[in-house]
Predict the 3D structure of the following.
Amino acid sequence: MISTDLIKGSLKTIVLKLLKENGRMYGYEITRKVEELTAGQIKLTYGALYPILHKLENEGVLVTESENYNNRIRVYYSLTDKGESVVAEKVREMKEFIESLQNIVNPQPGLNHA
Amino acid sequence: MISTDLIKGSLKTIVLKLLKENGRMYGYEITRKVEELTAGQIKLTYGALYPILHKLENEGVLVTESENYNNRIRVYYSLTDKGESVVAEKVREMKEFIESLQNIVNPQPGLNHA
DNA sequence: TCATATATTTAAGTAACTTATATATTGCAA
DNA sequence: TTGCAATATATAAGTTACTTAAATATATGA
């Protein structure tokens, strides 16, 4: 498992990117998808996920549709137009972040920045 | 610039990895090296850096040597034996983290995990 | 009958940061 | 010679994105 400190700041971006890739999803589905994609390395707790979803809905980034499945409520979330542009920006930022981290953990010895 | 939320949890690992690569360094030097390696994307503020260094010293991960240069105090930090193994573990974790993030932002459509 | 999986919600607590402030020297430009 | 930028370290106060924990409810297989 990866320490929660490391993962913390990236949860919102992860949720948004999954919604972009998969269209509408419900909360429980999102947690399982994250585990699947990261081979169990990243786990989204419900205490983190649902507040994130509610906040993004309040901000107009997501919209919900509640449906009934097997007598259980499912709240499906999907991106608004605003959400689409928010995702694009967040993903761009994350790619820059990944690149920066790679420059740290895999420094190129030949490349002298002096 | 990358949002501070994203960067937050990785600062300690970044500091430790730089010390591993460069041997002993002083605080101010570390902040500049991070900016250089990340093309200005990641900035280590002093309010973050010095508490991190002090804490790592208290934990026996780092040791200090204070020297005088141009009438300014420089506190050089370097890894202890314990520090070396801490870095190894932290870097391993960060590589897993990067890999997980890449699986999110660059999903492989052909690869079906169902 | 009981544990596990499914499904959502929210309150309370933690800690890694940011922001701001303090202090002091060197060196360059106007 | 005045004043700003760069160099160098330190720490107190505040923020916030999380974690942990507790609550609620149904379906399903052993």
Notes: The longest helix of chain A spans residues 81-105.
